[in-house]
Amino acid sequence: MxxxxxxLTQLKDEDLHKKIHELTTRLTQAYRMGNxxxxxxxxxxxEDYNAESMRRNQKVLDEMLAKNDKFNGIIDIK
Length: 78
What we know:
mainly alpha; 2 helices; about 70% helix; elongated
């Protein structure tokens, strides 16, 4: 976790995805310019934002699976 990252749970999904896009662009630019120190910092930030995005996606998936759990065991194929 990057020490300067704010609380990512407070961001809206749209803002989170915009920030991921912005960081990806900056990371690409840093590599092109040969500024590997900046690229490393961008990469650490990008990992934190991607982890938050994956956490949110997993939460949505878990909620969807919980809703569909009522159909478990109805069809018995043997």
